[in-house]
Amino acid sequence: MKKIVSVIVPAYNEEKRIINTLVALNEINLIDNIYVIDDGSTDNTYINASSTLNTKVIRQPSNKGKGVALCKGIELTIKNSDVIIFVDADLEKSAKDIEKLIHPILENKADVTIAKFPPAKRKGGFGFVKKLAKEGVYINTGVRIDTVLSGQRAFKKEVLEKINKVYTGYGIELGMTIDILNKGYNILEIPVNMHHNETGRNLSGFIHRGKQFWQILIVLIPKTISKKFKRR
Fold first, then answer.
1. CATH of the domain at 209
2. Which conformational region is residue 113 in: left (phi greater than 0), alpha (psi within -120 to 50 degrees), or beta?
3. pLDDT band at 203 (very low <50, low <70, confident <90, very high)
4. What is the pLDDT averaged over residues 7-19?
């Protein structure tokens, strides 16, 4: 029996990139459903996404963050899907490589797949956010992986049914990764040739990474404290 594959695309102010991303996803024959969760955009993201074929667009009344948008998408897809995929809205044509994440799930080679991007083409931050996330996963699971913060992920339905999905903003990937590993599910990191809208070493870039750092800490601190108490 064919497994139903659904994609969730959280989007905030991505009017320039959302159409190309959705067109690329529509070219993947394995995908049955595409849901865009417009997280309170103030530009034409909703209009542009709605103009794309085979796409269901849900508009959140206000910006509540990536974590809330993904949870809304899971709520809409989990009952009628066998495989659920997270895809960032800014991948544009490189979103076609999402297909590489689907095959290992369908072939039962992994419970979760995560996209491993090539090195960034421009200098961003100084690696503090990535280091915090990777060490946070290791401290809480004993497993080292490189793709803790990657937003491109495919899941077996049962994984999302068993793990906590309520995390703050950019902390959702970290929180879910820790939960997935601690429940004994298998994660496979898949090299891809994707690219996204990279932030540079400018004010907006540092503000973005500062927000990431803080939201990751909000998730990481209680998990680490809880783990230490369990060891006693």
1. 3.90.550.10
2. beta
3. low
4. 97
Chain position carrying tokens 């690329």: 24
Tally of domains within the chain: 1
Spatial neighbors of 204 by CB under 8 A, at least 6 apart, are none
User: Sign of dihedral through CA atoms 207, 37, 151, 180?
Assistant: positive
Instruction: Report the Cα 206 to chain-centroid distance in Å.
Output: 21
Q: Which of 117, 184, 187, 109 is nearest to 151 (CA)?
A: 117
User: For the ranges 52-61, 104-113, 132-141, 215-224, which has the lowest average pLDDT?
Assistant: 215-224
| Mean pLDDT across 27-51 | 97
Burial 6-26 (b: 16+ CB within 10 A, else e): bbbbbbbbbbebbbbbbbbbb
Helix (H) or strand (E) holding 47: helix 45-50
The residues near 61 (Cβ < 8 Å, ≥ 6 apart) are: 40
Rounded to 10 degrees, the C-alpha dihedral 2/19/36/66 comes to 120
Domain hosting residue 112, numbered range:
5-231
